[in-house]
Amino acid sequence: MSWASWTTSxxxxxxxxxxxxxxxxxxGDLTVHTTWSDGQASVAVQYSGSSDWFxxxxxxxxxxxxxxxxxxxxxxxEAVRAGDGATVPPDGTAPAAxxxxxxxAPVPGGATRRVRHAP
Length: 119
Description:
Layout: E1 3-20, E2 24-37, E3 40-47, E4 54-55, E5 61-62, H1 66-82, E6 112-117
Antiparallel strand pairs: 1-2, 1-6, 2-3, 3-4, 3-5
């Protein structure tokens, strides 16, 4: 069995933040972590620099491959940037993010680390 994980730090949640199972809405500077294992992707978020992780509402979701889970992680990062109470969709597709107003410039994201583990 193999698994992989991705972590993106310095993600500033858009207006309305993200919805978590344990703490409700989080906003501000967040770190997003996705773990892929056993055909599913699990997503957690934390305030950057904190030690407490919170499950993003809707996680885990079915995800058939490592490549699909990497693309999924990126779509979750983009949804967090969009805010609006972002959650993980039940079918594992990219979360729909509302379009940003033309007067706002995109906030630069943090670095993404990839860690791959195989038997």
